[in-house]
Write a structure and sequence with these properties.
five-stranded mixed β-barrel, 5 helices, 36% helix
């Protein structure tokens, strides 16, 4: 009887692992829109799915290099078939993921080109930090500016001073 109970527990644990794998599945489809330097729409089952590139943060649209970051991302993914390694959802309901085109990691490419920062609060891939350091060292993309402002700082509410 103990062997049957153990087998049932093992089966249940394997079922949970399979279910977790399904929950974090890989999405695939063509990119139908590039919203900014770190957000795209991927067509899945005839429906656009908003994908936020995980672990990176590109300049905002109204920020220096915001337009260039969007253009750089578009040149790599727009109307291309992509695979997205789903890493869950953000607080806005967007899919968080690492985007690949023909096996190339687009999240890493954005950092390597100096078109995005490593999003320190959420980064897990240490290789991204090395790519960012190299882009900074060789003044690629946004690193050409003497004092680039990280997007999370740009988004922070500005304090008002009263004289």
């Amino acid at each position: 009887m103990a062997a049957a109970g153990k087998a049932a527990r093992v089966f249940f644990a394997l079922a949970l692992l399979v279910a977790a794998g399904i929950a974090r599945a890989e999405l695939a489809g063509p990119v139908v829109a590039v919203l900014d330097g770190d957000t795209i729409d991927v067509l899945i089952d005839r429906q656009p799915v908003r994908v936020r590139l995980a672990q990176i943060d590109a300049p905002e649209k109204r920020q220096a290099f915001g337009t260039r970051a969007r253009q750089a991302l578009a040149s790599m993914v727009f109307q291309q078939s992509v695979k997205v390694a789903d890493a869950g959802r953000d607080r806005y309901g967007r899919v968080l993921g690492t985007v690949f085109v023909s096996g190339k990691n687009i999240n890493a490419a954005m950092v390597e080109q100096g078109m995005a920062w490593v999003y320190r609060q959420y980064a897990k891939d240490q290789a991204l930090f090395a790519l960012e350091n190299e882009a900074h060292k060789y003044r690629r993309g946004l690193w050409v500016d003497a004092n680039p402002v990280a997007p999370w700082e740009f988004r922070r509410p500005k304090s008002v001073t009263i004289n």
